[in-house]
Design goal:
This protein is about 25% helix and about 30% strand. The chain has 9 helices and 21 strands.
């Protein structure tokens, strides 16, 4: 019946809730007789009337029916499809309040999950003087203009239905998925995407519809076009369009390519990626160039990068520079140190570090990323950087046996955090400093607790708002050997 034996509420109950916090996905948290309910669109300090949608053992989900008392932090979301789209979660929250909440979220994870001691908020601006009383968590660094910041769009493609508001039946649609679903919300403009990304997606939908190209249907496995991925170099203006297809043959491909080239003069690369698997993973293993180069170029803080279709490259260039400069600051380099960059990707952090280090070693499990990293090091004349393909937890112990003694180890893992073996390796290698760049405060807190138990002290944490108007927050953390 959508309830549990212990829950004090049932599905379809109407409840009045005082919202006391936010989940990491940006949903409001209220309690009915002590039972936690998550309400999308509600803010801390608000009172709402809500309908219970789903009940699990320890929490449930509810839909806001009426806003009884509004937060002073509530603003009007400027996006016309914000209520339907799952791409952003916090456009209805004042931006300064978003930054404050993200810091509190980091502090909550450190204390609740990591069982770590955090200094009083007043110590957060004193440059680390409060570290003796706990970890200094600085105010979140935000953006002066928190819009149009994304350099990459990954847009699922579908077909408009006869009863759809998204266009004529049979035309291609594309946009973000509605929250907690695989239903595509069609859009022509996204306020957090670069305008060139919007233009390219819009164009592929128009030309593809005219040429009779069918979208992939994940329920039947039929159809061709799965995703359109667009990358834009903010510094160079170069654009790459990637067509992810369920099969190798694109009908009337020459007309499609010519149409894109004619309408978008900044395009330098049109690429096809083939993914025939029944999966929600976007990319397949085969990538082929349809026209132009296999890469586009961009610059971060004066360092030039070649970016291929499947490269990991941070999506917010302005905040990436802020984050990586902080990583270099925390590394405390004098020009003589040996640094290991685990999870090095295409070498972005590695090359920032290399300008201040004696030697940098990077390790990454994706072979194409390592090829890009080597190309990027050569592109910038940095010959004291070495990259290797493999798992960091397997490669780094071998480097240690070969005599590599790291003064600083930098990690920038995926959302799941560091592999347990990698943390053991870091503890065994005993660098003077560890710099941890994290996109998930929960797994960050878990890993910091392990490193603290292994002989390191967490000194300070700098949250950086890489993804304004979403529930995500990036952190740069300094640990020193005790």
């Amino acid at each position: 019946m959508g309830t549990t034996k212990d829950a004090p509420v049932r599905k379809n109950d109407i409840v009045t809730l005082d919202i006391e916090g936010l989940t990491q996905d940006g949903a409001g948290v209220g309690r009915a007789d002590g039972f936690a309910l998550f309400v999308q669109g509600a803010l801390p300090g608000e009172r709402v009337r809500a309908k219970v949608l789903k009940v699990k053992k320890q929490y449930g989900y509810a839909k806001m029916l009426e806003l009884l008392q509004a937060s002073p932090d509530r603003v009007e979301a400027p996006c016309p499809i914000y209520g339907k789209c799952g791409g952003c979660q916090l456009q209805h929250m004042d931006y300064r309040a978003q930054l404050e909440w993200k810091r509190r979220h980091v502090v909550d994870c450190l204390t609740r999950i990591g069982k770590l001691r955090v200094a009083d908020e007043g110590a957060a601006g004193d440059g680390g003087a409060g570290a003796a009383e706990g970890i200094v968590v600085h105010p979140t660094i935000g953006m002066a203009d928190p819009w149009r910041y994304r350099n990459k769009a990954q847009v699922p493609i579908g077909m408009a239905q006869a009863d759809s508001e998204d266009g004529a039946a049979g035309s291609l649609i594309g946009g973000f998925y509605a929250q907690h679903s695989h239903r595509i919300v069609d859009m022509d403009a996204c306020l957090i995407q670069h305008e060139r990304n919007d233009a390219a997606v819009r164009l592929v939908k128009e030309i593809g519809t005219r040429l009779g190209i069918r979208a992939y249907d994940e329920t039947t496995g039929r159809g061709l076009l799965r995703h359109v991925v667009v990358r834009t170099g903010f510094a160079t203006g170069e654009t790459m369009v990637v067509l992810v297809t369920n099969g190798t043959r694109i009908p009337r491909v020459d007309e499609l390519v010519e149409g894109i080239r004619k309408a978008l003069p900044d395009v330098r690369s049109i690429v096809q990626n083939v993914n025939t698997r029944n999966t929600n993973v976007i990319f397949g293993d085969e990538t082929r160039v349809l026209w132009g180069s296999d890469v586009i170029y961009d610059e971060l803080d004066g360092i030039r990068f070649a970016i291929s279709a499947r490269s990991f490259y941070q999506v917010n260039p302005a905040q990436t520079v802020t984050l990586y400069r902080k990583a270099v600051e925390y590394a405390g380099l004098t020009g003589r140190e040996t640094v290991i960059d685990a999870y090095c990707g295409i070498g972005t952090i590695s090359l920032f570090l290399a300008r201040h280090a004696g030697k940098v070693y990077g390790v990454e499990e994706v072979p194409e990323a390592v090829e890009d990293a080597r190309r990027n090091a050569a592109l910038n004349g940095m010959h004291h950087v070495a990259f290797e393909v493999g798992l960091a937890e397997e490669v780094m112990p071998r480097w240690r046996e070969e005599g590599v003694a790291a003064d600083v180890i930098v990690v920038d893992p995926p959302r799941k955090g560091c592999d347990a073996k990698l943390l053991e390796t870091i503890i065994a290698m005993q660098p003077k400093r560890v710099v941890y760049v994290s996109c998930n405060p929960a797994t960050l807190a878990r890993d910091l607790a392990v490193l603290e138990a292994g002989g390191f002290r967490t000194v300070e944490v700098q949250p950086v708002d890489m993804f304004p108007h979403t529930g995500h927050v990036e952190c740069c953390v300094l640990l020193v050997r005790k």
